[in-house]
Amino acid sequence: MSQSNQKTVRVGLLGIGTVGGGTFDVLRRNQEEIRRRVGRGIEVTMVADLNVERAREVVGKAAEVVADARLVVANPDIDVVVELIGGYGIAKALVLEAIAAGKHVVTANKALLAVHGTEIFAAARAKGVIVAFEAAVAGGIPIIKSLREGLSANQIQWVAGIINGTTNFILSEMRDKGLDFEVVLKEAQQLGYAEADPTFDIEGVDAAHKATIISAIAFGIPVQFDKAYVEGITKLSATDIRYAEQLGYRIKLLGITRRQAHGIELRVHPTLVPHRRLIANVEGAMNAVLVQADAVGTTMYYGKGAGSEPTASAVIADLVDIARLMDVAPGARVPHLAFQHDELSTTPILPMDEVVTSFYLRLRVADQTGVLAKITGILAEQDISIDAVIQREADEVSGEGGNQTDLMILTHDTKEGRMRQALVQIQALPTVLAPIVSLRKEELA
Questions:
Q1: Is 429 helix (H, G, I), strand (E, B) or coil?
Q2: What positions carry a catalytic annotation?
Q3: Same domain, 196 and 282
Q4: 3-state secondary structure of 105
Q5: Backbone phi and psi for residue 50, each to the nearest 5 degrees, phi listed first
Q6: pTM of the entire structure?
């Protein structure tokens, strides 16, 4: 049978909100182009959504609409289930039921894979089905495919990414307008960039889910979200964004994973990046991922990390892959995490105290002699060397009298644990008048 005569791939969509609606529309709009690429049609024939009326408005008569997602999973005519519900609860049950029923799965659910990926991939392997998840990380940017396939000749050294558009939008606005976090968060909510409950975004959890998946694929380790270090942007002030700028840096919330001699770093936190780096200039709700690998050097992937059609682009790319591979023996397919499952490494995720970075410190101190000597003495005791010290005169310190000043200290690389010990001692000095701000700095060279 010639490929173009192969039967149409029938897809069941679980959830037809923003991404589900985009997937339905793009698939219908580009169906001829997709058929030419794949050699067979891909068609959404069934949709489950609790809001049946809205779902019918989106799909019309093109697909059957039901309220119960289990009817889609149990339908023997459905080849692929696309899970766009989100969260860990019912989504996990439905994905595992779809796999058990011998159906391939496409999901945009980074939380589910970051926490339960090991179990889900094992179930899929046992049934010989594919779980595809390009849309789970960085929306429409094909970063999963690049790491799994395009860069498979390389030993990847590190990956650093702006992988949450909400926080990047907030940081861009804080920098542009000199506003504090709370003010910009409200603006982001009004514009629809931030959810009514933005916790997962602003506390770094969403970025950490994605960084966990990236880390697993880059280094051939199991997904281990519980080992990730996660710090959000809620404590960042406009003052530090301004000072960073004056020092030649931009502050970005980065997801970072790096191979070290004794383990893998996996961390999400606000980071000072030199503003001459391309990634420092990624503004608004855009995403960007920087990959450093031994053979190819540095590559960067940039684009929309969310939204109806960008994410749909990734969902449909996964459907295209499945349509091409569904008749291929499971052993001949690209493994879920890029490495053969029995070759996954037991290399540990490093505890944060062991991670080596450089730091930006801001200290509000009494403007008197000997203060700086005491601070640098404590840093020296912890073997932390200083790159630069900048003092802002009292009149530059907003609204304060002339008896206190801001000190900015940039350090060279040091172990996080040493810095923590030093900060406890420095904070205890009577001449240090406010909580110390400490932010990590990455050259990304």
A1: coil
A2: 210
A3: yes
A4: strand
A5: -60, -30
A6: 0.94
